[in-house]
Amino acid sequence: MKKRLAVIGHPISHSLSPLMHNNEFHELGLDYEYEAIDVVESELELVINSFRSLDFSGFNVTIPYKEKVIPLLDEIDEEAAAIGAVNTVVNRNGKLIGYNTDGQGYMSALENISPTWKKKKILIIGAGGAARAIYISLLRHSAAMIDLTNRSVQKAENLKTDAKVSNSNVLSISEAEEQLGNYQIIINTTSVGMKHTSGVPLQLTNLNKEAVVSDIIYTPMKTTWLQNAEQKGAKIMNGITMFVNQGALAFKYWTGISPNQERMNQVVINNLKERNNQC
């Protein structure tokens, strides 16, 4: 009997996780099946409890349930607790244990493009769940200096307070734009620039051309913001590698096996290119 896995969220039909994971299970000859399940909030607890069935090895959690799922689990690991969100759950004999692979997934992606990132001055745009995972994970792994900017300055202040750090500055968007040349890494964690939306999260007029400009969006694969940064000579990084990395970490939690991340990455890229050609 196949072992079952899933990703839950609302909406969820756009998710590339089933494609990515099922292809890798097939390539490795593993008897697992991964599906996307759209869950309305009123049924969240019922669905979570159904995953305690022994044929479910675990599941992923995406928007809007990464925080709401925590009280429904039996245990969460230290990093997930610090972040305050769970995106990966392992079923150990009916006991549901939550993890957060988003922050580590991003950190691994950043390491590839900027091996000395721990010595760089970093600016994070946004203060939502993705910003929280990246901010806290980078801080926990010895980032030297990370500042925050957000349209709601208070929300960014709240994130800084929750992280219990004193050496971060919170800037308004206009302040961040003025001081942008001081940063070697700029990370957009907002949805501004995602497919079917317009605009940029931050003007790049004062960008240091030696900077790394990173966007966790992967649809489109190169947002207008990343195109602008590239034209200014900056290194750019979209959200594909983070998405694949966090998925690979979850894969190993469930199966105990490290997947082929290069193959997973190519499956995602090929699918995104196919979707773009159909538009």
TrEMBL record:
- InterPro entries per UniProt: Aminoacid_DH-like_N_sf, NAD(P)-bd_dom_sf, SDH_C, Shikimate_DH, Shikimate_DH-bd_N, Shikimate_DH_fam, Shikm_DH/Glu-tRNA_Rdtase
Quinate/shikimate 5-dehydrogenase/glutamyl-tRNA reductase domain residues: 111-191
Residue ranges of domain SDH C-terminal in the record: 239-268
Shikimate dehydrogenase substrate binding N-terminal domain location is 7-89
Instruction: Report the EC code(s) recorded for this entry.
Output: 1.1.1.25
Q: Which domain of life is it from?
A: Bacteria
User: Could you say which residues bind shikimate here?
Assistant: S15, L16, S17, T62, N87, D102, Y218, Q246
What is its EC class? oxidoreductase
Q: Which GO terms describe its biological process?
A: amino acid biosynthetic process; aromatic amino acid family biosynthetic process; chorismate biosynthetic process; shikimate metabolic process
Keywords assigned by UniProt? Amino-acid biosynthesis, Aromatic amino acid biosynthesis, NADP, Oxidoreductase
Q: Name one GO molecular function term.
A: shikimate 3-dehydrogenase (NAD+) activity
Q: Does the keyword Amino-acid biosynthesis apply?
A: yes
Locate the residues binding NADP(+).
E78, G126, A127, G128, G129, A130, I216, G239
What does the subunit comment say? Homodimer.
Name the family the entry cites: Belongs to the shikimate dehydrogenase family.
Q: What is this protein called?
A: Shikimate dehydrogenase (NADP(+))
What lineage does UniProt assign to this protein's organism?
Bacteria, Bacillati, Bacillota, Bacilli, Bacillales
